[in-house]
Model the fold of this input.
Amino acid sequence: MKRTILLHPDPRLKKPSVPVEDLSDARRALADDMLETMYAAPGIGLAAPQIGVLERLIVLDCVKGENERARPLVMFNPEIVAASEETSVYEEGCLSIPEQFADVTRPAEVQVRWIDPQGAEQQEGFDGLWATCVQHEIDHLDGKLFIDYLKPLRRQMITRKMVKMKRELARE
Ligand code: NI
Done:
């Protein structure tokens, strides 16, 4: 089932999420809903707080190109266990902040540990767009948005545009 994505500004997007203590069928169904919502948007990553669930769960699939096989990843309690000193810059966007994009500098490579839907611990290194995406989604679990990396003026400008957009959407 497709879920509604919360739009910034929303207090739920600023709160830290709690660790997932047990993997129930309901949580696996929630992850499936998040993947469906992400692909439909379309987007390459989604964090549970973006659909109003304050639990440490993210989904992502950064495979681009129609001829490449999709690689949906579901991560419960994802943690960055190592990050490279080398950085990379990507123009980031966010499904909770539509139509707004900005360059963000982050570590170019990260090692991530997480629990998969079967309850097994996984660890993998990511680089390129995957590294940026997984860091962006884990930030959501700590109540942090990509605009928090921008200078205050730029951030306020984007927030003002979003307030206006939400007002217009509410009127429709
Ligand atoms: Ni986002």
